[in-house]
Design goal:
The protein is α/β, with parallel strands linked by helices. It is built from seven helices and eleven strands. The protein has one domain: Aminopeptidase, CATH 3.40.630. The chain has helices spanning 2-28, 67-77, 114-123, 129-146, 200-208, 227-234, 248-264, and strands at residues 31-40, 43-52, 57-61, 82-88, 95-99, 102-106, 154-160, 180-184, 194-197, 212-216, 238-244. 37% of the residues are buried. The structure holds zinc ion. Zinc ion binds next to loops.
């Protein structure tokens, strides 16, 4: 009798373990990946979308050479609900494309306003109205697929550190000082790890937590067509989590701090 009881308890425990293990598996494998092909002139690029459950943070990466930010996002989504949308092409920052025999080049984070499209095409060496129209369509598809207008908070993922860009770019002596209304640099923090923000509540919370941060100056920021400028124009709360290339653990920590902030501010999707 006792032996039978132990057998039943043992069997129940075994099935309990199996349940735990399969639960873990479905969670790590719970990220669904979908892709959408987009034509840009004669080039085909892919918009990748990773979805983990319902709700959660809505992350977007626009610079494919900033691989740490993609890795950090997927790591975060492996045990949290949310999504990551990113542009998959040649693992470069800029995207080159052709229309018939003409070659063009754009920075995909400079295409969300017409002024930005003009500037980035000219930076890339050549401009035409047809190219402008192609790029405008790409921007519209990115916004639509990311569901920009449905989200209460947009979170962009970037890496920096190879070309002199850092939180110091926004101080009084920095080359982008006009873009910032407020900037705070913490002594113990790396200047490449910082938040670029359009919402004062976020700035107050994250600087209070000891992070480097800047607040975009909506009246003076250069209209460069970036998602931060477009979000500002649309009144959309925007968070850019910038971390140095390779600062994987730090960038994951910074995503978690944003998650805690949105829960505390009652803004968690
Ligand atoms: Zn970037």
């Amino acid at each position: 009798m006792t032996r039978i009881c132990f057998s039943i308890i043992y069997a129940s425990f075994f099935f309990f373990l199996i349940n735990i293990i399969s639960g873990c598996n479905s969670e790590t494998e719970g990220i669904e990946e979908s892709t959408k092909s987009i034509a840009l002139g004669d080039k085909e690029i892919t918009l990748k979308h990773f979805q983990s459950g319902e709700g959660g943070l809505k992350l977007i990466n626009l610079h494919e050479d900033e691989q740490t930010s993609i890795e950090a996002s997927l790591d975060y989504l492996s045990d949290a609900p949310g999504s990551l949308t990113y542009l998959n092409h040649d693992e470069t920052r800029r995207i080159e494309f052709t229309i018939e025999t003409d070659t063009f080049s754009i920075d995909p984070n400079r295409i969300f306003t017409d002024t930005g499209i003009e500037m980035t095409l000219e930076d890339g060496g050549s401009y035409s109205d047809d190219a402008h129209e192609e790029v405008r369509q790409l921007a519209d598809i990115i916004l639509e697929e990311f569901r920009f207008f449905d989200h209460d908070v947009v979170i962009a993922m970037h890496n920096n550190g190879l070309n002199g860009y850092s939180i110091e770019s926004y101080t009084d002596d920095g080359n982008l000082s006009d873009d910032a209304e407020l900037v705070l640099i913490e002594e113990d923090e790396d200047i490449n790890d910082f938040y670029y923000l359009t919402d004062r509540r976020f700035y107050d919370y994250l600087t209070e937590r000891g992070y480097n941060a800047m607040l975009q100056d909506e009246n003076n920021v250069t209209n460069d067509g970036s998602l931060s400028v477009f979000s500002g124009m649309e009144g959309k709360p925007y968070i850019n989590i910038e971390a140095g290339h390779g600062h994987l653990e730090k960038q994951i920590e910074m995503i978690l701090a944003v998650e805690e902030m949105l829960i505390e501010l009652d803004l968690m999707p």
